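Two proteins, back to back. First:
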Amino acid sequence: MSARLDIKDETLGMWLGVAGVAMFAITLPMTRLATGTQEAPQLSPWFVTLGRAALAGVLSAIFLLVTRSPRPAAHQWKPLGIAVLGNCIGFPLLLAYALRVVTASHAAVVTALLPLVTAAVAAWVLHQRARLGFWLCAIAGSLLVVVFSVLRASQSGHGFGFEWADLLLVGAVIAASFGYIYGAQVTPSLGAERVICWVCVMALPVTLPAMLALWPTQPVATSAWLGFVYVGTFSMWIGFFAWYRGLALGGALRVSQTQLLQPFLSILASIPLLGEPLDVVTLGFAIAVVGTVLIGKKLSQPQAAPALAPADTPAAAGAVRQGRS
């Protein structure tokens, strides 16, 4: 009976992971709406980056007060602090700096490695182990996304060459991965909703003053404010409700591979939001990537039982269950 319940939890975790990724995927077109273009700029990229975390922080404070959520235990502050550095500050800031130098297509090539890096961090931090077949599927899926991104960059005339900003992008990927995994580590004991809420509240002393200091003085289009509200409420807050819960239920190592779908979901969302076209090549690569995720799901049984997660005793029990995924 418990094995059947575990399978249901793992399946629910995968679907929650997909839901979180879908909300994260719409971030790209919504951010484009918020910031505008070089010809018609709207909100500052710095304002969008720090302001979205501040908006999520205010919403999180209200949520924690209304639900009368207890303060995290002393041993939970460290994982939460790492999640703050990774998800609220590290990833968006490094990405913003890099995008001043390279194109978004170029950045997509490097950030497409996020699922593989997240899985590697999960294997290291949470001591999760999977068979060789899973890792081969993860690598194959990552390569498919990289090939697709390079192909699109080449078709756009941007090409793909090494830039010093690639180091910033790699740093952004590593920061996000550690933020995801350390947040997932305390999710079983703290709860997915409280994890992201405490992460956003902890960042408020930095993000709120920065947002107020960068508040726009020029007129801004309504569509830009709508994009900003989306990235502040869904990309930085509600999306993590589903994402952290999915990582905890389905296993961080396995659920992290649903991130491979994110570039393609972003493209699909850009069709109605930005009027961008959809081509057969995109659909073909999307189907192939979905295939690697599904095959990897079948091959994700562990080679050995994982050790307990050291930072949180209740979370460690959850990590044992995650190790089965």
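And the second protein:
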Amino acid sequence: MNRILIVGIDTVAGRSLAEQLSGTFNVTGLWFSTPTTVSGCAVARVNKTALNEYLVDAATIIFCGAASQSSWNRSFGTFRPEEKWLTPCVLAAKAFGSRMVFVSSDAVFAGPWVFHDDDSMVHSEESSAQQLRGFESEVQALTDSLIVRTNIVDSEGVVQQALRAVENGRTVSVDACTYATPVAQDEFASSLVECLKAGMRGYVNIAGAERTSAFQLVTILATNLECDTRRVVAKFSADQPVERSLRCLRLRNELNKRSSLLKDTVEHLADSVTARRQQVTAA
């Protein structure tokens, strides 16, 4: 595991992982569209030349593409990085005996259960879910692979975008139908690092402990930051709830790790908002 290649270091998941791994391991990061630097980490834009150069020496390949963003985000559902770059990474992992890690999404699920275990079957007929299952199956075919399902909320996703609208005096409608178990980016990264160190294979859920909707989370965060919650309006776009919540049994049973509570995730998001406000004031 000493040589790690993160494909998609410009994603929230990729950047957070690089920040936690670079002090201990030899980490290289390839970015898709946004130049990204992390202290102690070599970086380059992803292309065929860079992949050929870095895949050969990588003991572990971690792919963080469009699937690694929160499935609540408006941009979710277009998987261009996976379509273009996942197969070359899988083929290289097979050829060179590398370990392959794919950060997938809770969007493979839409029910029928409220909570989904690490090994739960996928029954969703949504096109994005079927695409994700195709990517997962490609990685699963490798001897040494780990597929991570998650829902990472961060300083740039739908929750923060909605809050900025409220701060600016605008009314915003937020999805109240799709339920998930969101996790903060730092908590996600630290959990995945533990999974890697433990040599975990197969499927693993990394998520928070409590089920919520984007609307509920935005409302709680707005209350925490003393914003006008009357400007947060629930949007009901489905006849019944879409259930994507994850139960993290492998983290608890194999690593003795508890999922973070919703209040911890809210505190993390509130801290990022406070830091942003301070930067604006200083400028």
